Amino acid sequence: MKKAVIFDMDGVIVFSETVYQKRRDEFFSQHGIELTEEIQASLVGSNVRDMFAKLIPTDEQRRYALMHAYEQFRLDYPIDYRQLLNPDLLTTVKVLKKKGIRLAIASSSSLTIIRKILAINQLTDFFELLVSGEQFARSKPDPEIYYFTVEQLGLSAEDCLVVEDSTIGVTAALRANLEVAALNNPCAQATYTIQTVREVLQLIE
């Protein structure tokens, strides 16, 4: 049996990607940058730093000015994370905790956002470890976030199962030698593909 499950945040705990895409569209259109469907898809699972590096690779001054503006834009952009909560999440983590499975989050989102989402949905007490991609020089698909998370749990890779929704997240977990369940993503590389987080309960056995 697995000893821990490590969850991504966006697209797994909350179904936020559609809202985030709309927010990005609104912000970047105000600044004359068009986000095609292909570009939007490439940003799923990324963080703010990597997103701006991709969209504004050469003009460093403009990049940092827009990053600062975007941080304020995000603060002012209303998102109801209660409405975005994965409806199967609470039941699943309750069962996992009852089985003695340890729970962690390893997300590209900031720790501030991770804590906010958990608090709003009364999930904080279920997770013993919160890790943000912003803590590292390189975020997903770099495996560093997962190496660090497993180390902090004091476990081996074989003891852990990762739940991801994005291809870059799946890649990061696999590079860290972890088994990974891809939620609503038919990623050929994933160890498992699942349609609901409830299926994690069978995968930990």
TrEMBL record:
CDD domains: HAD_BPGM-like. InterPro entries: Beta-PGM-like (IPR051600), HAD-like_sf (IPR036412), HAD-SF_hydro_IA (IPR006439), HAD_2 (IPR041492), HAD_sf (IPR023214), PGP-like_dom2 (IPR023198). Pfam families: HAD_2. Gene3D superfamilies: HAD superfamily/HAD-like, Putative phosphatase, domain 2. Its cofactor is Mg(2+). It comes from the Bacteria. Transmembrane segments: none annotated. Keywords: Carbohydrate metabolism, Magnesium, Metal-binding. The keyword Protein transport does not apply. Belongs to the HAD-like hydrolase superfamily. CbbY/CbbZ/Gph/YieH family. PANTHER family: 6-PHOSPHOGLUCONATE PHOSPHATASE, HEXITOL PHOSPHATASE B. This is HAD family phosphatase.
